[in-house]
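Example A, followed by Example B.
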Amino acid sequence: MARTPQAKRPRRNQHAPRARYRGWDTSDQDEIERRRLRATQEAIPVRPLDGGLFGAYLVGVSPGRQYRVEIRSLSEHINSCACPDYRVNGLGTCKHIEAVLAQLQKGPKRAYKAAAETGSPYVEIFLERRERPPRARVL
C-alpha cells in the first residue's frame, strides 16, 4: 500500500519570537531590543504613582519584586529603574522601563505624541549613567 504525502500540520507549542542571544557578541542596540521584546512578551504589571505620562511607576509581579521606574523621556534613554539589571547594564533601559513605555504607547495616541514632542514638564537633576564617567544632568 503506497503512502500519500500528507499536508504538514502546524506545530503545537509554537513559542513567541525570542531575541537572538549571541553571547558577548551583541551591540547595545541588540541588548535594548532584547529588553523591549521581553517587556512585551512577559505580563509585567505597571501601576502609575503620579498623574500624566512622565513621573513614577511601580512595576513588577509581586511585592518583593516590584521596582520603581522614573519616566523622564519618551525618546531618550534617560529614564531610571531600581532593578539590578538597570544598575549594571549601562544601556539606560531595562525590561521594566520598556514595559512602561509600551503601556504608554498603547494609550491615547495624541497625548503620547504631544508628550514626546514637548518633553517632561518637570525639572529634574539626575545622574546619567550611560556617560563614562557618569555625569549630573539637569532636565
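Example B, a separate protein, is given below in the same form.
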Amino acid sequence: MAALYDEIAYYVEIKNDFDSGKKLLARMDAVYPKEELTLLAHILLGDDVELFKRERAPDEGSFPEREIPTKFKLYAATPNPFNPTTTISYDLPVDSHVRLIVYDILGHEIKRLMDEFKEQGKYSVLFDGSKLSSGIYLIIFEADHFTRVAKVMLIK
C-alpha cells in the first residue's frame, strides 16, 4: 500500500500528472478504502470529500469557561499558511484518547503533537514548524472513533 501511495505522490508532486495519480488512487480505493494512506492520497489529489472540510477556529478566548462541546470537531489551523507556528483547535464531547499526528506530503510521520487521554472539552495545540522545510503537511486528528484530516502549508 505504501508503494502505491508513493507512486501516486510521484505522479502528482514530481510529474504533475493528476490523471495517472487518480487512476492509481482508484486502484488504492478498491483495495484499501478506509486506510490512512488512502485518505492522504485523496488529500494529495485535492479531492473535496466531506471528511476533509474544515471550519474556521473560534477566536482566542471565545470559549465560555464551562462550555462542553456536543460533537467532535477539528477546526482549521490558524494561521494557514504559517511560519513558523500554527494553532490546531479541536472539540471533545466525551473523554477520549486523542492523537494529533503531522505527516509530510509523502505520508511520513513528522511529529506527534498529541497522543494521550483528554477529558471532554475544547483544546488548542501549537504546531512549531521552525525545523521543517517549506511545504504542505497533513495533520490527522483521531479521538474515539472520529477521524479528520487538516492540510497546512508552511512557508518560509
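On Example B: Residues 2-50 form one domain.
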